[in-house]
Amino acid sequence: MNPHPTAHDIEQRMLALLASFLHDPDTVSHLGNGTTTLRTVREEALWSSAGGKRIRALLAYDAFHAISSGIHSADQGHAMSDDTATADQSMLDLACAIEVYQTSALIHDDIIDESAVRRGRPSAHRHLSDVMADRRQGSGLALMLGNTLATASVAIAHEALSHLPNTEAGTRAFLDMQHAVQIGQMLDLSLERMPLDSPKDLVTAAMDVDHWKTASYTAMAPLELGALAGGMEPVRARRLARTVGTPLGLAFQLYDDLLDIVGSSARTGKPTGGDIREGKRTVLLADALNLADEPTRIYLTRAFTSATRDDGTITRVMAIYEDTGAIDASRRRIDTLLDDSIRALHDSGLDAETIDALSHACSRVVPRTTNRGRSTSGSRTSPEHHDGM
What we know:
CATH superfamily of the domain at 195-389: Farnesyl Diphosphate Synthase
Order of helices and strands: HHHHEEHHHHHHHHHHHH
Strand content: under 5%
Shape: flat
CATH architecture of the domain at 195-389: Orthogonal Bundle
């Protein structure tokens, strides 16, 4: 077993696990229409699970490898277990379970946001609506598909954790991750109704959403699950996840919001300015409101409280984000959060080799966005695609 699987390795194993979990339509339905529908949904499950950077799975696996290696190195005179290969394979499956859950969450998120595109192809609910020639049926099937994948993720995690240390704590962490995302999604819907007269309050509310909805399963859960599987005590693993993972996960979401403005559709797999079109209350919007002059604040407030936003509005709002300095403010926020994450890692009490390994793993989740000591305008290449909600 390769101790450092690639994104391709993870995707292939993930698809194999899903193929084993999902029922063969011919064994379920004896009616032609039912069999056809189940086969369509099964195919969409596999299509929706393809693509992506697999950063969550890679972070979880890297945390497992770093922690387990550190524990074995510190345990003088204790040989490594004969079932190391089994533990490696089980950790790979646990990492895949995180990705399966993310796919379910993205499918549900696209239904809620009425997003038409995901990873450069029609979103699940849109594709199923086209196949069924009925929007209600397509959305309903996508909803059930998301539920099915969430159930599959728990089944995959349960089996993997049964072969790893801290089985019970790992199960709790995996379920806590799902519950946190559910809370975050509800807070996100609530945020849509928030008044825009207080940028400071908007930043606080948006960061709360980012904490529950994104940081919880992008960084916190992968770090905790990897550490638990590597043999770290549950209390210490939870503390590592909170102190290191929380700022890392928040930085990821701010970076994802930034990609919506300064990225390209070819890289992100979604139309640029999608968050603006959907009227999302983001930290970027809060910073723009705070930094803008009065006429611009009035324009932004009207734009984001309107029922829809056309292409012209999206273009103008994107320009406002740049002109007010909101984009640069977001870049500085990201790097400050990354500093907080690395600082917490160095204060974790782990040995230097483990800290270096985890630091490298964290650096792959979110890149630095500013040049220290210089103006940040126009000095970066286009960011890479991330899978965020």
